[in-house]
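task queued by scheduler; priority normal; single chain, no ligands, no partner chains; default sampling; output format set to structure tokens
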Amino acid sequence: MTTDLSQYDATQLPSAEVLGRQRYAIIVADWNSDITYPMTLGAVETLTKHGVSVDNIDVVHVPGAVELTYGAARLMREAHVDAIIVIGCVIQGDTPHFEYVCQSATQGVAMLNAQGKVPVIFSVLTVLDKQQALDRAGGKLGNKGVEGAITAIRMANL
């Protein structure tokens, strides 16, 4: 299922000519890949739909949500990108591990954004169960990867 982009005002996005010159990176957690990979596909499809060349989109895989910050920080230092999207999914379990992982990912991305070098877009699902994640990864509530891509385009072009 593709998210309906009609909720976004296309006039807020730059032209395809501008986007064709920009580079984007997506850091995707492999943990919960049945959720994160459809989100990544949604982000890539949205970027290319609006004019970003597929050759200007780098997709980098990391093991889990905690590693998203390192992946984004490294690309921030080593690659010229206009925006970075981090994609992950943390599903609550029976232990406090959920809270630690969510806190680590959230604070890490906030820290990177505070540096002001490149916008880092937080597309990490923090959900109570698998169905909530599926609903947000191309299900009945859309695809948060698509939303992350729109946000990345807008932030890269402030």
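post-processing summary
- Residues 68 and 74 are 10 Å apart (CA to CA).
- The mean pLDDT is 92.
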